[in-house]
Write a structure and sequence with these properties.
mainly beta, four-stranded antiparallel sheet, two-stranded antiparallel sheet, metal-binding, Oxoglu/Fe-dep_dioxygenase_dom
């Protein structure tokens, strides 16, 4: 289990949140605790924001599940951007 928290940052363009990556295990379960944006996924070479909805879960397929399903379920490349005013 891991827990990530990003405090507000006055210079979000100069700080790395979590760089582009895929997750290593089978599934990642992410709880959206509020409406702060930041999570993005990559599809067809472009980054798309994941619109936060408070109280919902986001489930990412990770690398091991992709291997076990022979690519039927693909691991999702994603990143997190820092916000200037919200935590």
């Amino acid at each position: 289990m891991s827990l990530h928290h990003y405090p507000p940052c006055r210079l979000p363009d100069k700080v790395i949140g979590i760089t582009s990556h895929t997750d290593g295990l089978s599934l990642t379960v992410l709880l959206q605790v509020d409406d702060t944006p930041g999570l993005q996924i990559k599809k067809d070479g472009r980054w798309f924001p994941v619109r936060p909805r408070q109280g919902t879960f986001i489930i990412n397929v990770a690398n091991i599940l992709e291997v076990l399903t022979n690519g039927a379920y693909r691991s999702v490349e994603h990143r997190v951007l820092i916000h200037a005013r919200k935590s």
